[in-house]
Amino acid sequence: LFRVKQDLPMIVSIMRAYKLKRLKLKSVEDILSAIENFHFMFTAVTSQRSSGGISFMYALSARELEKAITLESRLQVLKELKKKLKAKIPPYQEFESNFVNIQYSSKITKQKKLVQYILSKIDRYNRKNGTVLDYEEMTIEHLAPENAVMPSSPPDKLAQIGNLILADKALNNKLGNKNFDKKKKLLENSSIWVDEIIKKSDKWENKNIEKRSRYLSKDAYNKVWKY
Fold first, then answer.
1. If we measure between CA atoms, which residue out of 198, 206, 156 comes closest to residue 181?
2. Predicted TM-score (pTM) of this structure
3. Can you tell me the distance from the alpha carbon of 148 to that of 116, in angstroms, rounded to the nearest whole number?
4. How far apart, in whole angstroms, are the C-alpha atoms of residue 179 and residue 138?
5. Angle 119-122-126 (CA atoms, 0-180°, nearest 5)?
């Protein structure tokens, strides 16, 4: 999804160490999550380009992990890599300016998989009821419908991530082109996590979409993909 290859030497080294019982599962999950979170912010959202420094960093860490003899020294390699990744994370202002412009509609499809990934990760992080959902079977729906006879917003605003939710087939059929009040009630009674912007809104206009886009951006940066 992120189209990243620079991290492969390090990932191979990590998995080899795990297979040989040189790293515990918790440590492996922690560092892989850190790598994922970094490339979500650095690559998928802000489209940063590396002049080769990222590849060198991963290659060096992979060699150091291979050479490390004790568990303590291996954990130190992972700790140092996380520290280096954290130092390269883009500032929030840059992240937000790119995140709020992530879009999906029937005509704007390039970022569909990224939108599905973002919405599913945010939902999984915030949902507290423990229900297991099959995100692969869910579709991306628009709070303000893109196919309304009289659209409430321009196409680029309707496609913005702040107007997008995930819904299973049953919920999707119920939502249809209902007005916002009815959609909100259906969402609040569903298994999908509903954020505060939707809950506190009485109607759904451009300003609501923009506000929710920024709300999801802060949630993503400060919680869901945070180190």
1. 198
2. 0.92
3. 23
4. 21
5. 140
